[in-house]
Each structure stands twice: as structure tokens, then as C-alpha cells.
Amino acid sequence: MSRKKLSKVRRADPFFERESARYDFPLPSREYISQKLADEGRPLAFAELAELLDIAGSEREMFQRRLGAMEREGQLLRNRKGAYILPERASLTPGKIQGHPDGYGFLIPDDGGADIFLDQHQMGKVLHGDRALVRVTGIDRKGRPEGSIVEVTERANNRVVGRVFVEHGVVFVVPENRRIAQDILVPPEKKAKIKPQSGQVVMVDIIEQPTKFSQPIGRITEVLGTYADPGMEIEIALRKHDLPFEFSKAALAENKALPDKVRKADLAGREDLRDLPLVTIDGETARDFDDAVYCEKKGRGWRLVVAIADVSHYVKPGMALDQEAMARGNSVYFPRRVIPMLPEKLSNGICSLNPEVERMAMVCDMDISAAGKIGKYRFCRAVFRSRARLTYNQVWSWLSGAARPESDIHIALQPHLQNLYKLFHALHKARGVRGAIDFETIETQMLFNEQGKIENIVPVVRNDAHRIIEECMLAANVCASDFLAAHKQTCLFRIHEAPGEEKLKNLRSFLGEFGLPLGGGDDPKAKDYAKLLEQIKPRPDFQLLQTVMLRSLRQAMYSPDNVGHFGLAYEHYTHFTSPIRRYPDLLVHRAIKAVLAGEKYTPAGDWEEIGLHCSATERRADEATRDVENWLKCFFMKERIGEEFDGTISAVTAFGIFVALDTIYIEGLVHVSELGADYFQFDNIKHQMLGERTGQRFRLGDRVRVRLVRADLESNKIDFVLAGPQQVPPKKAKKRG
Fold first, then answer.
1. I need a surface site. Which of 37, 135, 550, 604 has the fewest CB within 10 A?
2. In 609-662, at which residue ranges do the beta strands (DSSP E only) sit?
3. pLDDT per residue over 124-151, tens digit each?
4. Model-level pTM?
């Protein structure tokens, strides 16, 4: 159907222009669908709704998918007859169940309203992650809306990883995900192939979901091993967080059919940059090289070329490899193991920019002024040959004068590296002028012995070679977002919204106690944060103030609606530079190629839904790696029970304080009952616990001395108690390298 033929009904959609910009054949917007249902004032069957909105022919299948998406997100409901209704008309709130380890839970409403408390009795009907309709029945003792589950609309848990317990002949599995507070009963089977034993880590299929009258029932389908088995922490995390870790047969077959090297036929229509001395600069242990850089002087400024592996040449829409990449969303980096988004033949082979081999790339070629301002730029499909695989430490040793290059290749590259370094200074200065926020945080790395056990946890030292590549990637990402926006090609922007009203209010209240103002009034900019950060750097309480400022910010995410990137102080920003390990980057490459070809790119699915999915897979990866790291830290600390450590209060909660240790970068809890013989009141605005009788205060950023009393592998919890005199010297600030 052409746009010209769209009926008056469709053109009356208030969001018609927005949908037209996103899709060649726009469907009615979600808002318009809801409005039409509201105007009708009665439930409508699919055929009635399609006729009302003038949906016909091949559009009906796409329209059905849109209604399905609205239903999944709680924007629509279907009654017992299958007709569509608006949830608010039924006085029901749709949302997702969030369980708590103590047995109660909440419904997180789809419309962003207040969370609805669900007591243990209500939570007996559901498991964490399920979707449900809830009716608000009153207010609980804490003033929160309390509800009753009317209907479970979607079950989230079909398979669960957990640990077997056998008590008095009764077998049950305790889920590893502590938010699933219900045990899963495993009834005896005469012909069962698996004879479970207490302590085993298993996969259990849920064959009966929980109801008002019964707990969940399951069947053990796989024994993974025991807690002590090497790598078990990763096996558990993969299954607990539902991370895809095995490629389908179809994807592996496609992967096998891919070429091992660039073929002549692949070079058609590509620019030949094989004479340009591009290089890769990565960490010592990196195996997938997806970006190469080159810089030369141009007038008073520079020419910067960033070449990114052309993954989209090999991974096409509709392929099983593409579906796998979409499902994974990103690669996941565990200590000692990587779960790649794409198979190794792609990520470490034909799409890895290895030295002295031909590789295909998407290239961003930029002119940058002496002041670090990006001028003209262009994108092109190219073929090139990386001159060398360099490491951050190697490059920094040359730039700092700590070492001299020895090989002829490395000597020949020095002028280009010097140009990159000068360009970096200009770009970094422009970052300051722009007002980007530059928080000082410490990243850590686990060092393992030959037996696979942690030997030490050390800080990762960043040098200017890291920052050179960071600034080059930022520049390319900005150009990509500008290019797509200028050509009105919808894509996934990397957005970072400004702080919310409530968090901003709490931050100002906290800073007020220190006599510190945050500029910008009701609408502060990144520059206001950056200015305050610079002002407080010399203070002894800098870490405290920086932490509170950092926690006032929102989480970055992917969205087709460009609201800018607050932290980086960019009006538009996207991810272009890592298509090997991030699916949004792969989509951005496809979108750029479409524009270069004079076409429009539309993915298989809604841009907004894909953005939400990729944001969710990113958080899933973070949670899984955090679980693994916490388990490894517990294992590391088990041998140190009774030892004392100096540390800093890194978080304050109603149930105690978390302390980050100075020397081994591990965090643990001092429970409120261990703070002293007093009643301690939690103040979430001042980030402190205050004793009612003694006035003793424990505040975020305070220095404390603690003793390790427990490191529990089953719960991944490390517990401390206060130890010795509490006059702990302030931690010395680390100089940036």
C-alpha cells in the first residue's frame, strides 16, 4: 500500500508523521490504537479493530504483531472471548512480577506507575519474572499500594537452575535465582534416568506452575555438577540469567560456509585503503579486533580514519546467525571465558582486523580541527590491511619515552602514533569545553593461578593510549549518529537522559549540607556536573561526593527516539564501533549502508522493541558477570576468615552498610545489628545510618576497619563486623596515568 493511498482514518493518527519517518509502510501508532479503543467504549475483536483502522491484506499480519507487542507490554488486554480491551477499563494493572528473596514481591506496572506490593500469599501464585494483572486492594503499612493477583498472563520460567536437597525422602530444588523464593518439588519417577543427590547443581523443567493451592513441580533434566567443580559459577550464571551460550545447528552451518579470507568478488564497490597504515590498538589479551585507526596532519588540524570490521557483509538479515546475534544482544565477558555474540570464525577470524591480512571495513573518514571539533566526514565501504597489532601498554611506552620501537614496522608507525596523540589532546580538551562528565572510577581485574583460582584482584591501570582509542571511537560514533539523523534514517541511538526530578532533588539536598551548589537550576546540564566535579577534586571527601553525583544519573540505553547523551554532553550519539560484540552496532552499519545506497533500512521488528531488548541484554550480561565475580570473590575470601581490613563505606541501606576493602577491591556487608548497641535510623537522602542514642554516624564514604566473619558461596555474600578502633586514615587519591 503506498502512502498516497492511506485512508483519512489512518492519516488522522496524531503520530502518523513519526511512524512514517520510521517505516515505509506505517501502521497505526500504539497511541492511536488505544485512542480508537477508548472512543469505541467496548471490547473489539481483531477483525473489528482492523476494519476500524482500515487494515487490510498483507498489513493484517504486521498489525497482529503490533497488537501482540502491545499485549505483552500491558497496553492491551484480551478478555475471555479474545476481544481487545484497555486495562484501565477493567480496573486492573498489568505488569511484571519482581520477587524478593524473603518471599514477598511487587508488580512493576507497565505504565510506570507506583510498584504494587504483593505479600507472600499472593506471591505463592507466581514466580519472579511472570506477567500478571493485579487489582489494588489497599495500602500496606509503609504507605505503598497493595494488590491481589487476578490473572497470570505470561509465565517466564520453564527451566530453572538450582541446587538439589533431599529431606526425609522428599526431593526439591532451591533456585539459584534468589528472587524465586519458592522451592520446586520433584516427585519420584519410577523410570527416572537421573537419580538426584543432595548438593548437586541441576537444571529442572517446571512441569506445573505454582497456583494458589500448590507449589511449583518440576523434573530434573540435567546434572551440571557440584559447587566445587571448576567453572561451575559460570555454568550457573548462564542458566540463571537465561543467556544463550550454544549456537543453533543452522547458525553453525552458516558460519562454516563463510570464507576464511576476503575474496575478489567481495571487493566490488569498495574503496581500496590497503596503502593506508591503519593499526589496531587493544589490550594484551584481546582476540577480536574490530577497530583500526590512522591519523595524519591536515592543515592546522588532522584527518582521522576509523575502520570498523564490516560484520554486516557476512551477517545478513534473516540468517540464523543474525537471529542468534539478536537474541544474545552482545558478547558477555566473564573472567577466563567469553560468550561471544557471533561464532569464533567470525569474531576472531574473517571479521577480526588481524595484521597483514585483507579485511573489509566500514570506514569513517573525518576532518578534525586544531580545537578538536569534527568538521567534514564521510562513510564508505572499504578494504584495508592492518599494519600492526599494537597494545595499549606498548604504545604508551613509546609515547611516554619509556621504551623505543625496535622493529622497522614499529619505527615507521611512530609519526602516525604521534599524530594520534596530538589529536587526542585536542579531542580531550574539546570534551572539557563541551562539558562531558568525567567520573574517576577504578576498574579491577582478577588474576588466576594455574588451578584456576584467584591469586589476586588488581586495579586496571588506564594510560593515555586507552584514552586515544576511546576518543577516536567517540568521534566515529558521533559522526554515525549525525549521518543517520541528517538522512532521516531511523536507528538505535545510545541515549542517556538527564537526571530525574526526585533524584535531582535528593542530590541538591545532600550537596547543600556541604555548602555545594549544582548549577543549572531545574534543568542542569552535563557541564554543571563537570564543573562541580572539578571543584571538589581537591577535597578529602571527593569520593563520597562523586559517588552520590554518579548515583543521581540514569542508566544509558538504546532507543530510536534521540534525546541526546547527557553524560557525554552530545546532542546525538550512537554505537557504531563494535559490531562484532554489540547488536545495535550491527544495525547501525546496515542503516549507514542503506543510506549510502540511497535506500531505507527497516529491521525485522519494531525499532523501539529492539532497543528495549538490546538494553535488557546489556543489563542481563552485567548481572551475570557480577554474579560470577561475586562467587569468585567469596571463594577467594573463604581462606581469610578472621582477618581485618581497612575500607570505605560504599553503600548505605536500611539493613546495614557495605564496605569496599582498600587492597583487594572486594565489597561486603556489615549488618545493622553489628553497628553497635543502639537503634540506627537509615537516611536515604543523607546516605547515612544514625544512632538514636549515641549519635554515632555511618555515612557513605566514611573510612572503617572491619573483620571478615563469613564468605558464603551459596548466597554469594560476604559479611563483616566492625573491628578495632574506627579512626581509619583517609584513602590516598590515585594519580591518573
1. 604
2. 644-653, 656-661
3. 999 999 999 898 888 888 888 999 998 8
4. 0.83
